[in-house]
Every structure is written in C-alpha cells, then in structure tokens.
C-alpha cells in the first residue's frame, strides 16, 4: 500500500516522502514494540486550525482534494488503513513528528488538527484520535490510523477495516457502537474532560461483506436524475443497483458489495465514469 506524507512549510503541497509497504497494510510488525503503544483515547481539545495547514484545496498524484470549511457534522463510513514503522519520526503535514505509538490519524479533507471517533464496524471497537496529518492517498481509503489506534480497534493483522469516522469536539457526547450502527438518537453525556471513556457495547456491530456493505452513488430529488444515473451505471455494467426513498430524496446504491477487492474495483470504476463522491454505507 503506497502512502505519501505532505509537509507544509510554506508551500502546499510539498511531497517529502514516498514509501511502499505490504499490500496488507503497513504491517512491518517485526519493527514494532506493542508495549509502547498508547491504550487510552486522545483527549479532544479546542486548537487553532491555521490556514497554512488547511488550504481550500491541494493536489496529489493528479487528484485534487478540497479541505472542509468546517468539520462540524462530519460522519462518514469507509475503509481504514494504518501506517507505522516506515514513517516513524517523519514530519507530518502539521509539522509535528509522526509517533506511531500515539493516538493520531491522517485524513485527506478534515481540518487539522482535529479529533474524530473511529468505530470498527466489524467488531464494535472504538478509538478517539487526533487528526494531524494528510492521507491516505491510496484509492478508496478514508483514514490512516497510527499503529496504536489501529491496535486499539483490532485491525493490525489484516491492515484494513470497515469504519465509521465521526468528528468530535471537547463538548461532544461520545456515541456507542450500537448508536452508530442503528442510527438511534445519541443520549446526552457529560462534556469530555479527560480521555473519553467509550462504553463496551452489549451487542456489537458485525458488518459483513456481501450482506451489509453498499456504495451510495448519490441522493437525488428528481426521478429524472435517478433514471439517468441508473442508465449510466447499466452502461458501465453495474447492475446491482437499488433506489431507496429517504424523505424528499432517492438514494441510489450499488450492492451489497461482496468483498474488499470488489469494493476497490467498484469505487475505481465509479470514479472513472464520473461519480467522484460515491461512498461506502454500512447498514445493519
């Protein structure tokens, strides 16, 4: 899996490192000391988000990414990866040195620094991380976790996991795994004053390829747009398409997606035919 780290010393972007790791993720475990990894969540706090770290857009490997104007309300699902020994002590996009044993992460479009709750949709494990880097610039990966964060949610061995990524602030309630999966209202909680505790879920999510994973192509108010999208998908040979009403909108989805390999193939194909905003949706 290829990763690129960006440095923002007055220029955006300057590529300072290109490293290649095993396809199963950055899993050079023989160069890792698990005992050094943090086990407690990052503690959200309000921090300045200077414009030099958050340009309106930037380009890497021929693709342009648009940094969010605000992280408020960000909640997305996708495939997480992790990065480790090959990047240890290298500069991150924020200028800080990467520490694979800290609870940090890289994201392509969230404003930095910031904090997110990451839920492993396959086992219900959760972690709060501080986003201080840009990436991953591998296609179809939503977030790059530090070794410590990946270890906490149980994704080291395979190198990837289906995750929900939700922006949080110091006064955000921390939703449980069940809340994220079911879409149930989040119960009130005390403001976060220390490393946020995450409840052990009584009934953990267990997302399964071929059953729970879909790709949402878009949501459209007019049926004419829906029909047009269906036709474009059919012309590309994508036939497992469903249309689901959602309020005044109609959600067009592909799936269920059988495997990670099929997900990558479909996402690449959708991007090729112009659906750049397609994203994973896990339904249980």
Automatic annotation (TrEMBL):
Its main location: membrane. Keywords: Cell membrane, Cell wall biogenesis/degradation, Lipoprotein, Lyase, Membrane, Palmitate, Signal. It is found in: Cell membrane. One of its GO terms (molecular function) is lytic endotransglycosylase activity. Residues 207-284 form the SPOR domain. One of its GO terms (biological process) is peptidoglycan metabolic process. PANTHER family: ENDOLYTIC PEPTIDOGLYCAN TRANSGLYCOSYLASE RLPA. Lytic transglycosylase with a strong preference for naked glycan strands that lack stem peptides. Belongs to the RlpA family. This is Endolytic peptidoglycan transglycosylase RlpA. It comes from Halothiobacillus neapolitanus (strain ATCC 23641 / DSM 15147 / CIP 104769 / NCIMB 8539 / c2) (Thiobacillus neapolitanus). The gene is rlpA.
